[in-house]
Amino acid sequence: MTKRLDHLDTAILSSLDADARASFADIGKQIGLSGPAVGERVRRLKEQGVISGFGVRLDLRELGYSLQALVRVKPRSGQLHTVERMIQQQPRFMSCDRVTGEDCFVAKLALVDVAELDDILRELHDLAETHTSIIKSSLFDVRQPPLLPQRQG
């Protein structure tokens, strides 16, 4: 079911995307609602599943991770579930998507330095083929897509 969002919901979501720590009162001042009204709308959006959680954006370099890599993974025959578990259990994988095409997974990996790459991927080598690209820079961080207009009932 497509969630119905009005212009106030859209404004609240945009504000939270920019700063999830903004108070409901501050968001309300920006969009012309009271703080409690914003809080009620946020509660409703959470109940509907539109908002699935709140998080923090980390500067990985400040935490000692100087590199990131994209790893395409193609499990060998019969190894799909084993490889999937291994990826899930390796904490250096920050994200992993199942994909169509030649590979089964595309994962993003945090690295202190390039020498770590072999150590982290070694356990996968008997079970899967991997192709790695070092990320040189990012054009932008993860962002939300534009909110779709309401559909007429």
- Overall number of strands: 4
What separation lies between the terminal Cα atoms? 12 Å
CATH class of the largest domain: Alpha Beta
Mean pLDDT: 92
Shape-level CATH architecture of the largest domain: 2-Layer Sandwich
What is the CATH H-level superfamily of the largest domain?
Lrp/AsnC effector binding domain/regulation of amino acid metabolism (RAM) domain
Q: Which structural category fits the helices and strands? A: alpha+beta
Main beta sheet strand tally, sense and closure: 4 strands, antiparallel
What is the rounded Rg? 20 Å
Helix fraction by DSSP (H/I, runs of at least 4): 25-40%
Strand content: 15-25%
> What does the overall shape look like?
elongated
Widest sheet: strand order? Answer: 2-3-1-4
Counting H and I runs of at least 4 residues, what is the number of helices? 5
Which blocks of ≥5 consecutive residues have pLDDT under 50?
none
Give the total of domains: 2
Output the CATH topology of the largest domain: Alpha-Beta Plaits
List the helices and strands in order: HHHEHEEHE
Pfam families: AsnC_trans_reg (PF01037), HTH_AsnC-type (PF13404)
Domain HTH asnC-type: 5-66
Keywords: DNA-binding, Transcription, Transcription regulation
Protein name: Lrp/AsnC family transcriptional regulator
